Predict the 3D structure of the following.
Amino acid sequence: MSPVDPTVLERHGLTSSEYERIVRALGREPSLTELGIFSVMWSEHCSYKSSRIHLRKLPTEGPRVLQGPGENAGAVDIGDGLAAVFKIESHNHPSFIEPYQGAATGVGGIIRDIFTMGARPIALMNSLRFGEMDGPEGARTRRTVEGVVAGIAGYGNSIGIPTVGGEVAFDERYAGNPLVNVFCLGIAPADALVLGSASGSGNPVYYVGSKTGRDGIHGATMASAEFDDKSAEKRPAVQVGDPFMEKLLLEACLELMRTDALIGVQDMGAAGLTCSTCEMGSRGGAGIEIDVMHVPQRETGMTPYEIMLSESQERMLLCVKKGREAEVEQVFEKWDLHAAHIGYVTNDGIMRVKDHGKVVAEIPNTALVDEAPVYDRPTARPAYLDDVQKLDASSLGAAGGALHAFLAVLGSPTVASKRWMYRQYDHMVRTNSIVLAGMGAGVVRVKGTARALALSVDGNGRYCYLDPRRGAMLAVAEAARNVACAGATPIGATNCLNFGNPERPETMWQLVEAIEGIAAACRALDVPITGGNVSLYNETNGEAIYPTPIIGVVGVLDDASRVIARPFRGAGDAIVLLGESFGELGGSEYLKVVHRLVRGQPPRLDLERERALIGLLVKAAAARLLRSAHDCSDGGLVVAIAECAFDSGAIGADVDVPAAAGVQGDPVIPTLFGESASRVVVSVRPDDVATLLQVAAEAGVPSHVIGLTGGAHLRIRVAGSPAVDCSVTEAERVWSGAIERHFLRATA
Amino acid sequence: MPHPERACEAALGSVDGLVLFESVVTQLATDGAVAS
């Protein structure tokens, strides 16, 4: 079989022009092993070939940034000589094929990225998208939800890292392609970040961790292709996770990093041994030579091709100083791990793979990394936009009144409590979680300091479908606002870009618009992007997901004791709305749930107003003016007010909200359910109201006292007219049971 | 049942677990095993 056989190329996901490029780079025809190595390194997943030229537009620098994109994870300075190391990554394709292991190994992978930087992982989050749990695809979706949530819990709980929060949304557009984005945060000494590079000719290269099997071969190429009905046949490409092995690796690596014997380390994630070998050599300006004979193998008769492309989990590649081998081996032996010496660093810049001494692959690192194809793919504004952006609110018709709509939106799984999920996650292990899952942004204190870190992951695929640029900006704004609601100053961000097939100009247009939107919002809000991940080809049978950029923002709270959470704290507090309502129903949860419509323009976003609001929240929290804070997002103002009452011990609210500005006709529905950005509902002691309003005015943030906490009801009026009156208990029952009921029924 | 070690500080939401550890220390001190 000649490697140039078109079916061989197709199986490797390479085009014939990419093959010609390989031949040019090598100056000869590649062997099959070399072809396999090129195919994974040049896959979309590893090379970012469609997105790279656009990712350069993202702001990646700032006074706090210690490590920007390009390493295993990004890092920002949080004071006290410490760095927050964090990243978000997707595991969408594996989670569709095998939900439990797909999600579990996603968690394992992102944890490795964090401790590889020399950081101790202290918190996990996730952002999930599923199909609808009702309807024709409901049964399959429920199985996927169950598997993914159990996989996240199974890995995170076992390794002992708390899952402190996240977000979940449901839409039929994700039925054939769920999204599983996982985020991890770690803490490292700011002056001792460990990089993934190998250097110093003659220095030994070690392999440590699980043995290599045939699992996950071509996982990276799989993540770079669309799905079809035959995708189940790809099942063997999903890896199996072992959190107990990873715990040992984590502890051993952190211990080794405290010595100065280590030069660099990288985990073997996508594209396994291939990617780690060539990237470590490339970053250090060196070459690496290994012999696959020394690679610990779980199965017999594995070929060099299989060993190089395996994506078996929980494996690390390390470069250590020559002469320190015994010390390194001792650390791993202590943790019951075996470090195998598989090769050494060379000075020729070549990745050389031998099998029992015989060269089976010999490729210059530059050919794999720097000469990887970069595409400026054509873009075209999708034709559907003109139609879907039109929304005539007056034609919506009657919908059973405000109370009916209120309960319908509260019971929508996207809005409803995610308690059924986070109850499965250990969100307290390590005893740092000072805001528990579901109560707002995740907040973990940093032991040994007075500080805490607040984390939020956000994104709205519907908004991005209607306007990818604005939708992406809104995602950045929401994540930053959520962090500020906890009282923390947003200091850094990471992004996970989930899109369809970039070879379609319409999808590519969405991707470019979204990246530019993220760039603009991150610049305006001073949250540089320090790393992330791009997941393309999220399509099944030619139908793409909503374009879904997910943004994770990390914020620092200098005094952990000033943290703020969502629930009301007591009766008799004033409820204040910060920000202004414009009654924007475009792309809202209300339209989707009540009218089955995904239309209109997503809410406008004024980045200066958002910036002012975020500054105000941080200042007010530091001055202890706020008792609770919760942002208005999915479901609008009425849902935000209700959510403040939930988990508070049924503290109700009696409010009269001003009619939304600029609304034609009856203002009730747009005021209650419009999803205008840059709004937060806070509760304040009566004595502090005047001060808060003054601070808000100084910050240029509109503020309205809209009512009082207390009573057992949610009584909500719009411009004096009664709109919703419902007992907190009843509303909370609808909200808290909407997801759970699907699984109680399934097990009954 | 919540883990008692996770309920020893108000910042974590509860101090109900603290009594367990205080009781251990008190008993050990009574027995002379540790200084109170």
About this structure: The first helix of chain A runs from residue 6 to 11. DSSP finds 27 helices and 28 strands in chain A. The first strand of chain A starts at residue 65 and ends at 67.
